[in-house]
Amino acid sequence: QLQLQESGPGLVKPSETLSLTCTVSGDSISSSSYYWGWIRQPPGKGLEWIGTVYYSGSTYYNPSLKSRVTISEDKSKNQFSLKLTSVTAADTAVYYCASVSWDVGGNYYIDYWGQGTLVTVSS
Amino acid sequence: DIQMTQSPSSLSASVGDRVTITCRASQSIRSHLNWYQQKPGKAPKLLIYAASSLQSGVPSRFSGSGSGTDFTLTISSLQPEDFATYYCQQSYSSPLTFGGGTKVEIK
Questions:
Q1: What is the CB neighbour count within 10 angstroms for residue A3?
Q2: Which parts of chain B sit beneath pLDDT 70?
Q3: How far apart are CA A20 and CA A84, in angstroms?
Q4: Closest Cα partner for B83 from B15, B4, B1?
Q5: Which residues of chain B neighbour A99 with C-beta distances below 8 Å?
Q6: Burial of A25: CB neighbours in 10 Å, binned 0-12, 13-18, 19+
Q7: What residues form DSSP beta bridges with B22?
Q8: What is the pLDDT of residues A5-41, one digit of tens each?
Q9: Beta strands in B16-69, from DSSP E residues, in sequence order
Q10: Which residue among A64, A108, A113 places its CB closest to the CB of B96?
């Protein structure tokens, strides 16, 4: 069974870069069985998909964040990471890392989630 | 982007009640629809994928139906542990998008 754990600073200053890492256990991030992704949730609000990376290195980003987001893998550490540049208070949220699987019909679903980490953007 | 609209945004129900939550997509998404349950302070948990397939380990009182633009999540007999917020999510086209959530509260 997959386990995912987010790590990174809980406080980031406005205009700086938010950086988070997700450590995966239970399978290799080099596996072709999953996409690896990030989702966020502002306090008291709903869920927003940020983007995903595949073992091949292919990335898919939410167009609303694409200009500021980079998701990458570190296969040697079995980790993947999120960088979000030029943050503002609107980027304050719980950030989740997750695995994304798909069924034979081409439907993609998020089957394993990290516990989430709150990142606050404030000076 | 495909917009996902859930209704109601909240509901009050009693243990043993049958509960139905609706999710509507702004365009046809075939059966590319998933449901999640989220409890306070916890990550969401996958309940249903592909509109009607029950995720392994999820109790059979949860069921999903629908295709195209209209979908429902049904809890046949509400249990104390089911009080939570429920989200739908489409994967028909990128970006993946979620509904606004339905909070199920104790009556």
A1: 13
A2: none
A3: 9
A4: B15
A5: none
A6: exposed
A7: B7, B72
A8: 999 999 999 999 999 999 999 999 998 889 999 999 9
A9: 19-25, 33-38, 45-49, 53-54, 62-67
A10: A108
